[in-house]
Every structure is written in structure tokens, then in C-alpha cells.
Give the backbone structure.
Amino acid sequence: MGNFLDIFVNSTKTILPMKVINLGEKNSILNRFVAQMRDKDVQKDSMRFRRNLERLGEIFAYEISQTMEYSEKPFVTPLGIANIRTYDDSVVVATILRAGLPLHQGILNYFDDAQNAFVAAYRKYDKGEDFHINIEYASTPDLTGKTLILADTMLATGASLEIAYKKLCEEGEPAHTHLVCPISSAYAVEYLQKNMPADKVTLWVAAIDEELTSHSYIVPGLGDAGDLAYGEKK
């Protein structure tokens, strides 16, 4: 009887979609940094563009830190011992090269004891406008049981982030993954909700744009984040 009840309860459980947290919906200074990144005149200053991405990374890191497990630990001061609650998670900060590097640095500024991982992924065009995502390189520590923070500045279709996540997970399954993508398309959010493990992944964004063109460009978006941060490529 107990086994039947367990099967019945499990079969009637509602499967919730992947959690999506849009920090841009709140009134905060984050929106000022996003506005400057989008502004076609301000974004000409590549140093400011990189710094704004770094600032976003710091804000996302702070917000993510509030979701972690904490415990009280003793710290020796010159005059005694202070018991302070700090996080227990073992953190790995990962990014998709190259546009995600300033964002990665911002997250690392706060999780300064984290391990790091990097994925080189890009669109490889076939015939006409058709393309697939190609991964040439991935460097990561063992992710088993750890908290993975995977950062990418623009989330157009969601395909590259999904592939990067699966590639990294070949080196162990994280306890939980936080996807940090400041500018996302509505299409990509829906795609990831259908294709990522809902109970193990949270998506963090600063803005969700409704339009995605036939070339997979986000509108209004902000342009090519990699070019704006580091200059045009061939």
C-alpha cells in the first residue's frame, strides 16, 4: 500500500519550470549600468562597457550569495574570536569566451575564493544563415556537488549556453547551477525552461527582450558584446 501511495504522489507532483530571476524588474542602480551598455553613444567607450559588465557581475554575485547555505564559523581577531556566518558552498565561476570575461571578473571579485572554468564556443555557419554551435575548448575543475555560476553576456537562442552547460557537466554534476545572462531574449528563456533541469538550474537576467531576428539577434539588445568590449573581430 505504501509503495502504491508513493507512486501516486510522485506521479501527481507538479513539475515547476526553471526559476528565472529578472533583477531589472526592481528599481536599482543595476538598471543604470544596463542603460549605459545599451546606449549607442556611451557604449563606444569600451572601457566603460567592460566596467559596466563587471559591475553587473558584482551585483549578480551578491544576489546569488543570498541563496547559498551558510553556517557560523570562528575567526580570530587581534582581541578575541568573532563568530561569523559565511557560505559553505564550493563555488566554480565559468564563462563562455570572449564576451563573458568582464562579467566573469565581476562575479569573481565577490567570490574571490572560487575555482574557474572557461568554454570557447561560437556559431559555425553552414549554408546561408544556418549555423550550429561549435565548442573547441573547455577547461574546468571537477564540478561534483559544487555550485556552478555560468556567465554569458547575451542569451539569444539559449543553445550555446545549454551546450556549454552539458560540456562542463562532463566533469561532474553540480549541486546547483546559476546561469548569469544580463540581456536575454524571451525565446531563450522559454528554450532553457524546456531543456534545462528545472530543479538544478536558476537563470538570472537583467532584462528580457521580446524580439529575436531571423539572424538570432536580440532586439533592442545592445549589439555584439564581444566587439564592444574588445574590438571587432575578423
